[in-house]
TrEMBL record:
<feature type="active site" description="Proton donor">
    <location>
        <position position="182"/>
    </location>
</feature>
<comment type="similarity">
    <text>Belongs to the DDAH family.</text>
</comment>
<dbReference type="GO" id="GO:0016597">
    <property type="term" value="F:amino acid binding"/>
</dbReference>
<dbReference type="GO" id="GO:0006525">
    <property type="term" value="P:arginine metabolic process"/>
</dbReference>
<protein>
    <submittedName>
        <fullName>N-Dimethylarginine dimethylaminohydrolase</fullName>
    </submittedName>
</protein>
<dbReference type="InterPro" id="IPR033199">
    <property type="entry name" value="DDAH-like"/>
</dbReference>
<keyword id="KW-0378">Hydrolase</keyword>
<dbReference type="GO" id="GO:0045429">
    <property type="term" value="P:positive regulation of nitric oxide biosynthetic process"/>
</dbReference>
<feature type="active site" description="Nucleophile">
    <location>
        <position position="276"/>
    </location>
</feature>
<dbReference type="GO" id="GO:0000052">
    <property type="term" value="P:citrulline metabolic process"/>
</dbReference>
<dbReference type="GO" id="GO:0016403">
    <property type="term" value="F:dimethylargininase activity"/>
</dbReference>
Length: 289
């Protein structure tokens, strides 16, 4: 894992001009979504889930992506796997190679095989993690760098394994607040140079790393973090995020991004939002530039 150094700044001239890039996403319908166990601080099995509303909110998210011009493939849902809707956790795909997940909790372990099967159908080779690693939940690609969360799920040993597999810098960030159990709940990539984040979710050392790498990062406040505002998806211009994250949306708009607001409040009962529902297929290195 590399020592942090500041990334090259994005070119600017006057007002920021953001450029969208067409993406390839994988999602999974919440056909069997429910909160029947508690493996993160958001989950309460005594809280009822409106299954029809969850499915409609998810369908609205998929339509949003397609309206923005992105490709969306659907991984079939499987009975008995209520968290499978959180498709981002199944793998990390970079340069056409997949790092297949090994889940921390037995309740989700069987999801990994279904992700591997879909990736095989797409012609993407899969390296199955030898250590606990939860895909894009804890692994955030920012340009040529992978930011890697640890503290609750993905292990530091997985970070080292991934660095060898991808031959890319993998930078460890320690999470300290159980409400932000995955890196994608408290940090999102806006483009190849910029992130948005909530500093309070990180250790002091982790905060120093993020500030060194991304001195121009967007800092969200606790209110927006607690509505999973940072669990968003950006194509470089459009940023899809929860409708309740009003402060963060205003900050992004001021930076030249276009917030696209959606309601995933039913899925938030499972501790997931926009990004949790969205895996990205990155085929070639050129597509990252």
């Amino acid at each position: 894992m590399s020592a942090p150094t500041a990334l090259p700044a994005a070119p600017t001239s006057g007002a920021a001009v953001r450029t969208a890039r067409t993406r390839h996403y994988v999602v999974c319908a919440p056909t069997y979504f429910d909160v029947v166990y508690a493996i993160n601080a958001w989950m309460d099995p005594s809280t009822p889930v409106d299954a029809d509303r969850a499915l409609q909110q998810w369908a609205d998210l998929v339509e949003t992506y397609r309206a923005l011009g992105h490709r969306v493939d659907v991984l079939p849902a499987v009975p008995g796997l209520p968290d499978m809707v959180f498709a981002a956790n199944g793998a990390l795909v970079v340069d056409g190679v997949a790092y297949g997940s090994r889940f921390a909790h037995p309740q989700r372990a069987a999801e990994a095989g279904h992700h591997r099967a879909l990736l095989a159908e797409l012609g993407i080779p899969v390296h199955v993690a030898e250590h606990v690693a939860e895909g894009e939940g804890d692994l955030v690609v920012v340009g040529a760098v992978v930011l890697a969360g640890t503290g609750f799920r993905t292990t530091r040993a997985a970070h080292a394994e991934l660095a060898v597999l991808l031959d890319r810098p993998v930078v460890t960030l320690e999470l300290v607040d159980p409400r932000f159990y995955h890196l994608d709940t408290c940090l999102m990539a806006l483009d190849d140079h910029t992130v948005a984040w909530f500093p309070g979710a990180f250790s002091a050392a982790g905060q120093d790393v993020v500030r060194t790498l991304f001195p121009d990062a967007v800092e969200a406040d606790l209110a927006d973090a607690l509505v999973l505002g940072l669990n968003g998806v950006s194509d470089g211009r459009h940023v899809v995020l929860p409708v309740a994250a009003t402060g963060l949306a205003a900050q992004l708009a001021a930076r030249g991004y276009e917030p696209v607001l959606v309601d995933l409040s039913e899925l938030a009962k499972g501790g997931g939002g926009v990004k949790c529902c969205t895996a990205e297929i990155r085929i070639t290195e050129e597509e990252q530039s």
